[in-house]
Task: inverse folding
């Protein structure tokens, strides 16, 4: 349902030139929706320790040290974080279901 809403808003935005006031209203809407649904979590909400661990894991994967990479993934899983590797890096997913939109780049 949320996907359909975002698609319709995006289609409207592409087909209709929005003015600044309309853009501000859309931004306010998404901020309000996030407060209720909790689907937008910027990277800065993660602790430095988690960001550092994920960055280290990305580097271990890059240099093919998979045992070390798996160890970090398992430690983060025990702390309540899931990792999803994608083409641009790694997305961190909280065990409570909140997904971080920003990923940590691979730099490879």
Result:
């Amino acid at each position: 349902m949320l996907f359909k809403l975002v698609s319709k808003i995006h289609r409207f935005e592409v087909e209709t030139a929005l003015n600044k006031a309309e853009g501000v209203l859309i931004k306010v809407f998404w901020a309000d929706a996030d407060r209720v649904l909790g689907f937008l979590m910027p990277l800065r909400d993660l602790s430095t320790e988690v960001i550092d661990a994920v960055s280290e894991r990305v580097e271990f994967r890059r240099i093919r040290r998979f045992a070390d990479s798996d160890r970090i993934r398992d430690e983060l899983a025990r702390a309540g974080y899931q990792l999803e590797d994608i083409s641009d890096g790694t997305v961190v997913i909280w065990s409570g279901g909140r997904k971080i939109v920003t990923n940590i780049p691979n730099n490879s």
In short: Helices lie at 2-15, 20-37, 48-62, 66-78.
